[in-house]
Amino acid sequence: MQGVGFIVRQAVLYSTVTVTIKQYSGDDGKVHLDQKQVSTGGITNEEFRMLDWSWSETENRIWGKVKGKNRCGTLEHDVSELDDDFLKEGWAQDCIDDGIIETVSESLTNGWVATQIFGFADVDGLRKQVRRIVSRKGDQVERHYFNLTPNLTKLYQQWSAADANFAKKAPKFTGVRILRQDAWEALVGFICSSNNNIARISQMVHKLCVNYGPLLGHFEGEPYHDFPEPHALAHDGVEAKLRALGFGYRAKYLHQTACMVASRPAGWLDSLRNPESPVLGTKPKPGAEWSAEGREGYRAAHEQLLILQGVGPKVADCVCLMGLGWGEAVPVDTHVWQIAQRDYKFGKGKHASLTKQTYDAVGAKFRSLWGQEAGWAHSVLFTADLRAFSERLVVKVEVKDEGVVVKTEEGLEVEEGVVKVEQLVERSIKRERDGEQNKMFEIEEKVVRKTKRGRKA
Fold first, then answer.
1. Choice among 314, 348, 450, 456 that is catalytic
2. 1: in domain
3. Residue 306 and residue 426 share a domain
4. Which of these, 322, 377, 283, 222, lies nearest to 64 by C-alpha position?
5. φ, ψ dihedrals at 138, nearest 5°
6. Over pLDDT 70: what percentage of the chain?
7. I need a labelling partner for 130 at 20 to 30 A (CA). Which of 6, 97, 289, 385 fits?
8. What is the pLDDT of residues 137-165, one digit of tens each?
């Protein structure tokens, strides 16, 4: 029941539904299946189906806009393709021999797919008409979460055309996408990320779910919990318990931020979203005018997030980029600052250190290069700079075809060859504020000249 409000879900759950089905052959030569549903309170919904396995759309009073297809099929050849035994087993012998009716309905707004099988079965010793339903999430959820709609090839081409450095590294790091996370989950996750590593961040998020998230169910004996809502982390004693669970100073930030978000109107975080990148099931709306400083909505969202505890400029940009859909947000951390110094001439003059002014200048530089999805492009270079992927940047020695020159000097022939060597070099950069050494990788180019002398023939 994705996309259906709580009250409607409860009404459906506890109401009695009477279903009347009429099957007949129409003048068009097709088999029709008309279905009328009347629930408690007299709410009526009618569906007019044809058993030709072609898609048609309808407006359902409860489920919204839905498309569906229907057919007469056999349990052996048609339904046997399904992976759910509940749909395939327990039918009367004549259904096994002669077939059943299968319908597939897909929500066009909320991303679910429901498969129904109509037939006859033995129920407590009585032969009854039975309808079995299995509902699954459709691929809309996956496409939304993994941000699969944008054409990544075209984006890479656009960024490469604007930036030679991107063009050089991107071919070895294809397929990098920015997730479209839930705003609250992104906010909590990035507060946990402060001075942390991926393994510990994952452990912290897991502990939050286990200790404060509602139980979804069990799979192979393992309990699975949903992510906790803000109010679940806003109670007294949460900070102390989180400290005991190993969250350290982040415990205070998480508790205080949860209190602040819980005290605001419902949906406050999502109100900061980019209207062009809304939550699942909501139609996009036109955004504001673009500028290198970012659109007005992005700047407003960034400022609002800075009010929260444990949220600095980088965390705010991470939430804007991955939780609120603002593609121009460019989070600048140690890795990105090193990239800016090495490849984009920062680190000198007024930009010698990572101040607020420099932070803003790096973001503006990248936005001027890559446009409205600058945060996405910057994430490709961020990935390329990680040690875990450094082997992708190792390149072979190249020999220029035109690099062999024959000269004559004092009775000798001299062959002079030119070889360009590219190799991965690890360097250390010291952070000014604490003197910590950080490793970074860069490609070093050398031109090697090889000379061979021999007597002139």
1. 314
2. no
3. no
4. 283
5. -80, 180
6. 76
7. 6
8. 666 778 888 998 899 999 999 999 999 99
